[in-house]
Specification:
alpha/beta, Rossmann fold, DNA polymerase, domain 1, 2 domains, 6-stranded mixed sheet, 10 helices, 9% strand, globular
Length: 246
Amino acid sequence: MNKPTMAILDGDILAYRAAFWAESEGVEYLEERVNHDIQAWTPAGVDKVYVAMSCSRSDNFRRKIWPAYKVHRDDSGRKAPEHLDYAEELVTKGNVVRMDCLEADDLMGMGASSGKSIAVTIDKDLRAVPGWHWNPDKEPEPVFVDQQTADYNFHAQWLTGDSTDNIPGIWKCGPAKAKKILDSTQPVNWSTLVMATYEKAKGKDGESYNYEYCMAMAHCVRILRSGELDKNNQPKLWFPKVGATD
């Protein structure tokens, strides 16, 4: 399968990394550092590069579904790098993609799953989206993630949640347990089985999970794919076709 000649880079991570670097190495070299990083993150054979930037956390569409989404980061008291605004300005000097209510992950996910671009990031969560991906810290070149693998990764995270984003998932369901659950059936049954697992499980407080909670977890962990925006550029929330492939 031919690799796309366009790439979308994770601008959030590029800017944070560069800003942290500038705190010790000096802001006068920040532009040089950003240019170096963008070049280093550009896959061979690519002739068009875009940088994806997230909307503000408060505008993220997931906050309407799960108000606690990433709220712990707002309340952590941890200060952003001093030169983050300048780093973001430098990162977005070229071709930038940004949309109201969407994260950089969503923009990369839609591009990769359309087959038109390579998603470039060190964030492993993007592997829940089919298409071409590249982690420049760990991989010598881009790799292709097929739909079944991406769907497996999505369903696994639907079960486990994501503590870094304040998405609880099922209490005490870690990656090993999620793997055991998904490996017990065929891909066509993954959504049905995940929903049944939520229905039977209980939270830390001993209360059962309801359907709304189950779907909120799915919508929070699911990175948007191609075709999942409506005509007004608003997310079309995913709902499982139970008993059928996604």
